[in-house]
Design a protein that fits this description.
two-stranded antiparallel ribbon, 6 helices, mainly alpha, about 5% strand
Length: about 140
């Protein structure tokens, strides 16, 4: 019964792996996979309480203007992202971060729009850059209709 894959336990039967088919550890490389990557709380990429307070007051002002909840949620996310990498009170550092960020121009437009709302609400002088993006051309061979 020692090589059997089933063994009796009380009334029922349960499955047990055979020792001769599993000679070692099931995953000896698991220790490599367990290592965690650095998170934002470890690397310092968080906005301070001061920035969070100014972002919150900006969002309250925009909510009073009548902006939709989804728009406010996106603005909050974009402003927190900008605050993690640039000083929101310094318009030039925000502009430089947006310009150097490796992403699509549509994302740069969204970041610039979010900071524009922040700058207007907090009295910061800032000229919004124009990031234009090209629409993808439709393939003439794949037209339906």
């Amino acid at each position: 019964m020692s090589n059997s894959i089933f063994a009796r336990r009380g009334e029922g039967r349960f499955w047990r792996a055979r020792r001769d088919l599993n000679p070692g550890s099931p995953a000896p490389q698991a220790s490599v996979l367990i290592q965690s990557r650095p998170r934002a709380h470890m690397t310092g990429l968080r906005c301070s309480d001061y920035c969070k307070g100014k972002i919150l007051t900006t969002l309250i002002k925009l909510e009073n203007r009548g902006l939709a909840e989804g728009t406010l949620r996106n603005l909050s996310f974009n402003l927190k992202h900008l605050a993690a990498y640039a000083n929101l009170d310094d318009a030039e550092s925000v502009g430089a971060f947006i310009a150097k960020k490796a992403c699509a121009n549509s994302q740069k437009m969204n970041l610039a729009k979010a900071y524009n709302y922040y700058a207007l609400a907090n009295g910061i002088e800032w000229i919004k850059p124009n990031h234009r993006y090209e629409r993808k051309l439709q393939d003439s061979n794949n037209r339906t209709g």
